[in-house]
Amino acid sequence: xxxxxxxxxxxxxxxxxxxxxxxxxxxxxxxxxxxxxxxxxxxxxxxxxxxxxxxxxxxxxxxxxxxxxxxxxxxxxxxxxxxxxxxxxxxxxxxxxxxxxxxxxxxxxxxxxxxxxxxxxxxxxxxxxxxxxxxxxxxxxxxxxxxxxxxxxxxxxxxxxxxxxxxxxxxxxxxxxxxxxxxxxxxxxxxxxxxxxxxxxxxx
Length: 204
Description:
By secondary structure, the protein is mostly helical. It has nine helices and no strands. The longest helix is centred in the last third of the chain and has 31 residues, at 144-174.
């Protein structure tokens, strides 16, 4: 695949993915509330989910997504329910931890499935790829190598963007030292997470 096509794809994805959406809102809320150490299963699932949608678009499998529409709807609502539950936990989280007592972390598997639910529950990601890719490449002639190049480009862009958001959220968390500040942060994070759940639920 031509380097120019990959650069155009990367630039468009950078603009689209860099704008905070439900996935980024959920990620930032999680980091501010509980730190960044346990978010990587969530991130990995988001990147895999994006790769799945990209693959559907590249190989013309939009029909498959429509055929299994009910499955994607179920996945979407599982993600909404989990994000709403996380928002409730953040809203009611204690602001003072006892000495030597660390906050209980969600299991990596739960976070991974939450990330998959958030991403696969958003078919507009595939619609973005379906709208963009035909303008820069001939989808009918894409080889496995071309698909791998697109996927690697997508992964590089998303990793850079998402880790930048994680770093920014982690720095913001460091500024929140007092119980009052932590309570405000927890409530803001809960509101953000709830808004992310609502945004996903409202999408058709």
